Amino acid sequence: MAAAKKGRRPATGGQGKPGRTLVLILIAMVGLVGGMFWSGHTTPRLGIDLAGGTSITLRAENQPGKPNAINNENMQTAIDIIERRVNGLGVSEAEVQQQGDKHIIVNIPRATDSEKAKKQVGTTAQLYFRPVLAAAGSEPLPEPSASGQPSGEPSGSPSGKPSAKPSAGEGSSPKPSATTQGRAASDALKAPSPTPTPSGAPTPAPQPTGTGDAAVQELGQKFATLNCAPDPKTKQVANPASTADPAKPTLACGTEGDAKYILGPAEVAGTDVDEAKGVLDPQRGMWIVQLGFTDGGAKKFAATTGKLATQQQPQNQFAITLDGQVMSAPSVSSAIAGGSAEISGSFNQESATELANVLSYGALPLSFEQESTTTVTAALGGEQLHAGLIAGAIGLALVIIYLVVYYRGLSLIAIASLGVSAILTYTLMSLLGPAIGFALNLPAVCGAIVAIGITADSFIVYFERVRDEIREGRSLRPAVERGWPRARRTILVSDFVSFLAAAVLFIVTVGKVQGFAFTLGLTTLLDVVVVFLFTKPLMSLLARTKFFGGGHPWSGLDPKRLGAKPPLRRARRTSAPTEPKEA
User: Fold this and answer.
1) Does residue 238 contact residue 232 with C-beta atoms inside 8 Å?
2) CB 105, CB 99: distance < 8 Å
3) Cα distance between residue 294 and residue 310, in whole Å
4) Among candidates 194, 177, 250, 240, which has minimal Cα distance to 219?
5) d(CA 318, CA 316)
6) I want to staple 346 with a disulfide (CB 3.0 to 4.6 A). Which of 176, 215, 302, 485 is the partner?
7) CA distance 46 to 86
8) CA dist., res. 192 & res. 164, Å (int)
9) Residue 28, Cβ neighbours under 10 Å: how many?
10) What is the DSSP string of 501-532?
11) 218-254 per-position pLDDT tens digit
């Protein structure tokens, strides 16, 4: 007998030490939950569709002449600039993330002024300072002013003699705008403090670059027929300079379509601006934009303003173009040296801040198309979250009812496993928010609901394997161990297929659908962890109890209900009784 025991091989899938495994996963759970409370992030970060706010999806596009501009370096630069722009407007907790090779997702939460941010999120901000060669207005021209403004001066061009300290309404067009769009005619570009005129007689300044070129003459013919007024249907203003070569003259329109221009080649680029800020000038009681240039930009700016200061209107204007449209066309009264300048005119706090923000953070290295924009109110987001939680509760309740009715006592193991899976899922979602920026959106909630069925399916596969072993005549403890290897293979294959589908979906999609894929993949991995480290060890421990091991009718493992007939093992072959020998 001793030899037989010594040579006996352990059952397939050996019992091991299930108690240690359960302790291990419980320690891991306590550590994760403790880390969640220690970090202070006790709830998952909610996406825009649940918390309310605006989500903008941008698609990068190659610029003319730069077919390979879309790369990881340029995308990261664009993300950094967009984030600084949005935060520079006072929008707190905005998220800017790259998805895939060509998409950037900008999430602007509720309780912030998202409208201002939306204006600048996808603005490429190709910024140039171009001299004005000609200007005209799209509306009837104003009558001559008392200051000697010539009749026929357009709206949007400087009026009267340039002044170093123009008032907010001096010589402005009849309908000056309070924003950088449609900048009023009184804008002036000057040094921040009076700059002494250089000694000696000024030398005649040359005409702006390209004034006599054939290209300018051709533009003059097109200029006569150019209509910058907004389209009645789309409300969009024409932008003929959107793809213009900065080294060549071009036609351009004001951002409100109230003025049109012929602009010379760019003299100063946005990359030459070091910093800009909108401030209130206490002496004049008006908002201005202060500029600071790089060393190279300061030299270019001083040389160009020196040329423009000697020109007659409108050729003494310096147009500031943003993505081809003229944001402002201030006049220049003197050369501006020293690497700093200011733009004054019909600004208010908002318009000065917006223009300074764009000037400060520069141009994006890529052009972006707003692929989609979704705005959700906080009330609607709360309703969607409530509906998602109700759907999840209904799905969980149906699964529990099915388990209790069909598996009876085994349902306790399944319910406990579902509870462990829920705790791990909730904790990881809460920790992944600040760690990688994961936000729980409505598709992610759907993924979590689907995961309930995937997890329950793993329990059912294992339970049925154990029941099959009992039907074959084995007792519970051997059935638990012999059924595990077969169930394990099926569970791993099933979860691998689910995880592969989630990974493919995450790679080929953008936006909110990735939330569904990420949650589905996460819960699939957790299903493997829970089944291997909790469900199986717990089943091995409960098989040693009288309630389950003895096949109680309410255990779900009653041999009679499963169709197994006692004895549970094949009866031993007994020898036939011997006949008594005849005497």
Assistant:
1) no
2) yes
3) 25
4) 250
5) 7
6) 176
7) 20
8) 10
9) 13
10) HHHHHHHH--TTHHHHHHHHHHHHHHHHHHII
11) 888 888 888 888 877 767 777 888 778 888 889 999 8
Question: Which helix (H) or strand (E) segment is 190 a member of?
Answer: strand 188-190
How many whole angstroms separate alpha carbon 127 and alpha carbon 327? 10
| Ramachandran angles phi, psi of 503, nearest 5° | -65, -45
Q: Report H helices in 309-441.
A: 349-361, 378-407, 410-436
Long-range contacts formed by 487-490: CB under 8 A, 24+ apart:
487/461, 487/462, 488/13, 488/532, 490/461, 490/465
Instruction: Mark 409-419 as b/e (b = at least 16 C-beta within 10 Å).
Output: bbbbbbbebbe
Half-sphere exposure of 282 (CA within 13 A, CB side): 0
Which amino acid does the sequence have at 136? A
User: What residues contact residue 324 under an 8 Å CB cut-off, 6+ apart?
Assistant: 126, 239, 240, 241, 242, 243, 244, 250, 252
Among 265, 250, 259, 260, CA closest to 218 = 250
pLDDT number for residue 334: 83
CA atoms within 13 A on the CB side of 252: 39
Of 542, 528, 543, 433, the C-alpha closest to 25 is 528
Q: What pLDDT is stored for residue 188 in this prediction?
A: 52
Q: Are 337 and 195 in contact (CB under 8 A)?
A: yes
Structure tokens that stand for 261 in this block: 């221009």
Q: How far is CA 533 from CA 18, 170, 214, 541, in A?
A: 8, 79, 80, 13
- CB atoms under 10 Å from CB of 90, counted, come to 11
pTM of the prediction? 0.55
What the block records as the tokens of 510 is 């953008």
pLDDT at 370: 79
Of residues 31 and 325, more confidence is placed in 31
How many DSSP H helices and E strands does the chain contain? 16, 15
Q: What is the pLDDT of residue 83?
A: 76
Q: Is the pLDDT of residue 373 over 90?
A: no
Instruction: Give the tens place of pLDDT for each residue, 151-205.
Output: 333 333 333 333 333 333 333 333 333 233 333 334 555 555 443 333 333 333 3
CA 43 to chain centre: 20
Contact 396, 541 (CB under 8 A): no
pLDDT at 4: 44
Nearest to 457 by CA among 499, 403, 516: 403
Q: Give 69: exposed, middle or buried? Use CB within 10 Å, 0-12, 13-18, 19+.
A: middle
The helix/strand/coil state of 284 is coil
- Report pLDDT for 271: 77
How far is residue 418's CA from residue 395's CA, in Å, rounded to a whole number?
Answer: 12
Query: What is the identity of the amino acid at 94?
Result: A
Burial 234-244 (b: 16+ CB within 10 A, else e): eeebbbbbeeb
Whether the bond into 240 is cis, omega within 30 of 0: no
**For residue 180, what is the DSSP state?**
S
Cα separation, 341 vs 302, whole angstroms: 10
Whether the bond into 140 is cis, omega within 30 of 0: no
Residue 266 — φ and ψ, nearest 5°? -65, 130
